[in-house]
Amino acid sequence: MDTPAQQDRHGRGRTHHRRPLRLLLAAGAAAFTLTAGLATPLNPAPERAKAADDGKKVLTVAVAQSVDSLSPFLAQRLLSTSIHRLMYEYLTNYDPKDNHTIPGFATEWEPSADKLTWTYTIRSDSTWSDGEKATAADAAFTFNKMMTDEGAATANGSFVGNFKKVTAPSPTKLVIELKKPQATMAALDVPIVPEHIWKDVDDYAKFNNDETFPVVGNGPFVLTDYKVDQYVRLKANKTFWRGAPKFDELVFKTYKDQDAAVAALRKGEVSFVAGAPALTPAQAASLKGEKNIKVNEGPGRRFFALATNPGAQTKDGEKFGDGNKALLDQRVRQALFLSVDRKTIIDKVFQGHAVEGEGYIPPRFSTYFWKPSDSQKLAYDPEKAAELLDEAGYKLKGDQRVGKDGKPLNLRILCHATDPNDKAVGKYLKEWWGELGIGLTVNCLDDVSVPWYAGEYDLAFDGWSVNPDPDFVLGIHTCAALPAKAKESAATDNFICDKTYDELYQKQLAEYDPAKRADIVKQMQSWLYDSGYMNILGYPNAVEAYRTDQIKSIQTMPTAAGNIYGQDGYWSWWSAVPAGDTSEASAGGDSGSTGAVIGIVVAVVVLAAGGILIAMRRRTTADDRE
Amino acid sequence: MTTESTAAEPAASSEPTDVDSTAAENSASTGTPKSPRALARARKRQSLARFWRAYRSHRSGLWGLAALVLIALIALAAPLLAGADAQSVTDTPGGPLELPSGEFPLGTDQFGRSVLALLVWGARVSLTVGLLAAVLCVAIGTVVGIVAGHFRGWYSTVLMRVTDWFLVMPTLVLAIALATVMDRSIWTVILAIGVTTWPTTARLVRAQTLAVESRPYIERSRALGGGHGHIMLRHVLPNVMPLVLAQTTLVISSAILTEATLAFLGLGDPTITSWGGMLQDAREAGAVSAGDWWYLAPPGIAVAVVALAFTLCGRAIESVLNPRLGVSR
User: Fold this and answer.
1) Do B277 and B115 contact (CB within 8 A), yes or no?
2) According to its UniProt record, where is this protein located (chain B) (predicted)?
3) A89: CATH
4) Kind plus residue range of the DSSP H or E element containing B213
5) Which residues of B touch A427 (CB under 8 A)?
6) Counting C-beta atoms within 10 Å of the first and last residue's C-beta, which end of chain B has fewer, N or C?
């Protein structure tokens, strides 16, 4: 804007805008029609199963998340942990049909009579990708490292907190001794790493496992290349004990913009779009009609919730942060949630691509799923909410709730700027709570972790992917998860620390009877619900799409109406079958039309510039001409 | 206006700013010798008429002005035209992302709100932000420019180096950085745009100040005892005002564009409806890949039209007021 204005100001005399303007408009219109004509042939040019020059079958997955670390001791994000599932074996795995525990690196496992010693039989047909044999010693090394090195306990430390001793008496036998009984022993989601590679690592807190490629592993795929925020490339492990994957290569390509990922899927540049966290209703609807594209929708593993700040504190009870004091009153918290119409959120924001929220654990995990009883349920009831607020001492003055100190009740909510659902729900909350007389500031940040860890928020949008074993998502609300020092990162989700809850947590962890354990887990959810610290708004469905002309079939989990990306296991990518080998007639056509578009645009720009130049020359020579 | 204003010397100033209404009584009489104030007022009226005559000859400027007046009226009448609760998401009339129809001439957004109504409400935010940011930007630029032009020496050097520093900083990056560290509100956006776009104005004003200060009457004024403040406010400011005015209109259009950009990048207040914010909402709803053009095109075109209108006006004002552009030889 500024530069041309200046040029004219000091420039060549009086400017007539009309001619170049008209010229530009005409040129723009021309460019538009030309490219519009091309745009249609662009779309339905499906590329056959993507094959590199040497005929390799490549499965490309568009992801939005970036990798936090490739070290299994540090990685916590869904993408990174999914990749670790592919790179390394875990002791056990989950059945893709119904989530029950099935053999992984271990073939059998058994507790002793006193429940304190677990013996695992390790399979003998697994080898590391550099040829060395994978044995129980590797597993023992992994667990011992996590027990002794604080840096190695960052991601999965919670699993080994209760371990007393881990030994490998023989290459096929692993023995874990516990301090107290632990129910999660058949669900230890810890990648087992090769000892001969990892024993040389100096600092586990800093090593990101991205220095030498390929990375030695024993999973169905071997990591061969990685570029930050660009791609992660894995090649099939042909000697994988369960059988080699059907695709030769698997690439996770980063698309920060979901629309770009969808466009890439339409053009056949990627075979699969994971969505972050799901395709939007509009995208799903538009892809549904598309030829050669299948939209897959399954119940999600995630819950989407509102969390209130219960007063951030350290393990020693030192308070920090600036959460609103009003939220320390259970009645206020409940009043907030009584005025949230979850059904509207499901209908309007998710447009039916989610299930209305009840308990903490999604209904997909039916063993642990809990529903509030009718008398307990905080259903949408703004009048009752207003009563509760009156009771708590926040009377309505004008159109604002005013506390006893005479200050109006204004709250802040932390939202992820990258999640459109957060912002959309924020709009609803602002109106609902505004009607109650509570002010709300929606504070959207790219990185919410700084104010979150510092306890500087009143409410926050929260969400976790739940594993078949709920121990992890339950553990993040215990006092033990609180940070050691103020503002330090910690396992805690939301600074909740309560004696009743902690006792229940310990009880479920020590309970080996599945039915009894499920019962305790439900009690914990009931407590969480009543506390008003967490309000589960819904369980968003996994909405994802793939090209059927590149992927013939792929395993969903659970098999009936399940999801593909972010499974508890490597089933989807391991099982994916490439579409039939039709002759290659791709790449060229696509880049050709792109070239044509660029060519046209350049031509139009040149034409317009030429026109303006001529117009200007005519003007400057106006005196000479007559 | 000024703290040290001694007896005003309207005769010495080419464009006196004194608009005291007490002088109204003897303005009408033509036969009697007029008071200096009445003279000044008459001349002001004349120059205003002359300005309007000259402006009228710029047809593009008239188009721009007409478009602006229309859009301003629409923005002011938003509650009447679109309804006061058009922005509410909880009680929406339509379904999500409906095609344009008789009921919703521009279709609906993902919450089922009318896009046309949102467009009308969005005009308020876009115009407000554009105007306030431009005023802030031009105010900073004018102060820095006049001070740097008036006081020579190291003082000016330091100021101009600061200006240069801001000039070479990429505006958008600086604005994004500012908007990121501060709260997400409309004021942050105004501030971010205002404090990042002033250097051009400062440079322009400084050049004009130098030109004005080299005129003989400034020297005379100084000889008669005019202080720094007096010269800057009474003589320099009125002379750079036309330039500032033209610059303001031009800056508004870029401010509106920057506001839309920031909102599109998700740095605006998500609970306020602005045109850039609408584009951002449309993108996040997946309207681009779904081909929901009615949600994408209107806010984009609206931004372009307003920016164009301000530019047309600005150019017309500029060529009328700037002596170098105004006189065709």
Assistant:
1) no
2) Cell membrane; Membrane
3) 3.90.76.10
4) helix B198-213
5) 89, 111, 270-271
6) C
| CATH code for the domain of A549 | 3.40.190.10
Which residues in A lie closer than 8 A to residue B254 (C-beta atoms)? 1-2
Q: What count of other Cβ atoms lies within 10 Å of the Cβ of residue B26?
A: 12
- What does the pLDDT average to over B226-240? 89
Q: What are the pLDDT digits (tens) for B184-228?
A: 788 888 988 888 889 999 999 999 999 999 999 999 999 999 889
Confirm whether A51 is domain-assigned.
no
The domain locations on chain B are 78-326
Within 13 A of B10's CA, how many CA atoms are on the CB side? 15
How many Å apart are CA A434 and CA A309, to the nearest integer? 20
Please tell me which of A156-170, B60-74, B168-182, B309-323 the model is most confident about, judged by mean pLDDT.
Answer: B60-74
Is B90 within 8 Å of A424 when comparing Cβ atoms? no
A478 shares its domain with A509? yes
Do A162 and A195 fall within a single domain? yes
Same domain, A247 and A308: no
Residue A373, domain CATH: 3.10.105.10
Residue A510 above 80 pLDDT? yes
Domain boundary pick from A157, A186, A219: A219
Select the residue from A16, A17, A450 to test the B interface by mutation, using most B Cβ atoms within 10 A.
Answer: A17
Enumerate the residues of chain A whose CB falls inside 8 A of the CB of residue B183: 441, 443
Q: Closest Cα of chain B to A273: distance in Å?
A: 13
* Same domain membership, residue A230 and residue A207: no
- In angstroms, rounded to a whole number, what is the distance separating the alpha carbons of residues A277 and A288? 18
pLDDT band at A61 (very low <50, low <70, confident <90, very high): very high
Same domain, A396 and A518: yes
- Answer with the residue of higher pLDDT: B227 or A38: B227
Range of the domain at A111: 65-219
Q: What pLDDT, on a 0 to 100 scale, did the predictor assign at position B205?
A: 92
What rounded mean pLDDT belongs to chain A?
Answer: 82
The answer to whether B266 contacts chain A (CB < 8 Å) is yes
Average pLDDT, integer, range A323-336? 90
**A53 in a domain, yes or no?**
no
Partner-chain contact B284 A280, CB within 8 Å: yes
Which residues from chain B sit within 8 angstroms of residue A8, using beta carbons?
A: 315, 325
In B213-232, the residues whose Cβ lies within 8 Å of chain A are none
Half-sphere exposure of B297 (CA within 13 A, CB side): 8
Residues A326, A271 within the same domain: no
Same domain, A277 and A424: no
- Which of A263, A341, A442 comes nearest B289 by C-beta? A263
Terminal-to-terminal C-alpha distance of chain B: 39
Tally of domains in chain A: 4
Query: What's the whole-model pTM score?
Result: 0.76
pLDDT tens string A269-304: 999 998 777 888 888 888 888 888 999 988 888 899
Whether residue A551 sits in one domain with residue A445: no
CATH class given for the domain over B78-326: mainly alpha
Instruction: Report yes or no on A200 lying in a domain.
Output: yes
- Distance, in Å, from the CA atom of A4 to the CA atom of A17, rounded to the nearest integer, reads 13
User: Mind telling me how many Å the CA of B44 is from chain A's nearest CA?
Assistant: 25
> Is A49 within a domain?
no
Q: What is the pLDDT of residue A618?
A: 54
Residue A556: band (very low, low, confident or very high) from pLDDT cuts 50, 70, 90 = confident
- Residue B143 pLDDT more than 90? yes
Tracing tokens 């001794």 back to the chain, one arrives at A177
HSE at residue A407, side-chain half, CA atoms within 13 A, is: 7
